[in-house]
Amino acid sequence: MATTAPSTLPDQRRQDRFALPGGPGWWASCAAASLALAALTSLGPHRVWGVAGALGYAAAAVLAARGRSARTVGAVAVTGAVALPLAVLLALDRAQLEVEVVARSATLLLADGTPYAAHPLIPGDFTPYLPGMAVFGLPEAVAGAHPLTDPRLWMGAAFLTAFAYALPAGARRDPLLWIAACPLVALPLAVGGVDLPVVGLMCLGLAEAGRGRAGRAGLWTGLAAALKWTAWPALPVVLALSASARAGRGASRCALVTVATAVALVLPAALRDPGAFYAHVVAFPLGLTDAVSSAASPLPGHLLATHVPGGRTLALLLLGASALLVALSLLVRPPATAPDAALRLALGLLLAIAFLPATRFGYLVFPLVLAVWAAVDRQGPVHPFVRLRVRKKASR
Predict the structure, then answer these.
(1) Nearest residue to 226 (alpha-carbon basis) of 258, 178, 184, 254
(2) pLDDT per residue over 125-135, tens digit each?
(3) Measured in whole angstroms, how far is the alpha carbon of residue 130 from the centre of its chain?
(4) Which of 36, 38, 150, 235 matches a 20 to 30 Å C-alpha distance to 216?
(5) What is the DSSP string of 226-257?
């Protein structure tokens, strides 16, 4: 029986590590961005993060210039950009508004069976997330407000855990340090951000689909879909990848598990008070309520809607056209690997962020995390599932 060394097989991914930016210039630019945010923002938690992050990134730049290891430099950056501002903000009981919203939604869920207030009036009264997001507020709702029950800790832990397990075996520590230190991720880790657990679960769903585990892919994707609408574009991508990875046999199972998981977590709260559900998670995000969302970063969709007559309609048309093109690409050329699927999803989300009338720079964490994960997974060590298929082909 003839065998071929695994390293010579054409379908095995290279063992090279992905070279993430980590030189002195990178960390110095992160320090400059942090200082700029601290100087320009009107939000207290963001100002705390900007000052602490600038110190951490500056120290990382100095260490990188002196030739210290990437792991040491990354640890210093994480300490300054995540651990230090997080500790200060927890001690001061300060956080981004999302943290308060998640905590309140969990309290309402336990009291009324729905995380949505019946009569929201101002933007802070709305909970524009799906019911699953309230899970991160349950520790505080049950045990009371305390640094260890703060929702941002649980959201951050969920993201880091999901992202770590989505990475290929043997490549978890260094990319995890880098992504945690990256300003777009470090900021919500410290001040609180609901997007991190969503994108972490999206990466894990894609990873499991690429490994041929359709049921697990459906579970993680369904959990993400029960947290926030922004996870829903991942559903067709994960299904297309599942169909490709298992020659069509995995798509139906993945779809069934995804829908069952999302429905089980969303439907009870939606049926409990359909009017409140619609107001919070449909009308408010679409700008159909008297209260206006504060998501207004100067990206193309917002600029069109604000400054061009009929610009809102044009922005929505561009958004729809982008979604249609991505959907057609999935039909014409389905992604063959998890990294390909992640990059396709990252592109689609980037276009959506650009053309949404109400958007913010923080949403860029979605394409960033997906792209980084795809790059690491593409060049990382072979997963055991892939290795097994490679050996079977070699022995034929």
Answers:
(1) 258
(2) 899 999 999 99
(3) 15
(4) 150
(5) TT-GGGTTHHHHHHHHHHHHTTTHHHHHHHHH
Let me know: does 230 contact 197? Beta carbons within 8 Å.
Answer: no
- Mean pLDDT is lowest, of 5-9, 104-108, 232-236, 262-266, for 5-9
Question: Of 188, 190, 201, which Cα lies nearest the Cα of 132?
Answer: 201
pLDDT tens by residue, 148-194 = 999 999 999 999 999 999 998 776 678 899 999 999 999 999 999 89
- Residue whose entry in the numeric block shows the structure tokens 């001690």: 91
pLDDT in tens, 186-223: 999 999 989 999 999 999 999 999 988 999 999 999 99
Contacts of 366 (CB under 8 A, 6+ apart): 195, 198, 199, 202, 230, 346, 349, 353
Q: What is the dihedral of CA 263, 265, 267, 273, to 10 degrees?
A: -160
Q: Cα 169 vs. chain centroid, distance in angstroms?
A: 21
CB neighbours of 247 closer than 8 A, spacing ≥ 6? none
Report percent pLDDT > 90 for the chain: 64
Phi then psi for residue 91, to 5 deg, are -65, -35
3-state secondary structure of 310: coil
| Residue 74 near residue 22, CB atoms below 8 Å | yes
Q: How far apart are CA 329 and CA 325, in angstroms?
A: 6
pLDDT band at 383 (very low <50, low <70, confident <90, very high): very low
For residues 173 and 154, give the distance between their C-alpha atoms in angstroms, rounded to a whole number. Answer: 20
pLDDT band at 10 (very low <50, low <70, confident <90, very high): very low
DSSP 284: T
Which of the 8 DSSP states describes residue 285?
Answer: T
Against a cut of 0.85, is the pTM above it? Answer: yes
CA dihedral 49, 115, 289, 295 (to 10 degrees): 20
Distance between CA atoms of residues 118 and 272, nearest Å: 11
* Dihedral (Cα; 274, 277, 281, 285), 10-degree rounding: 80
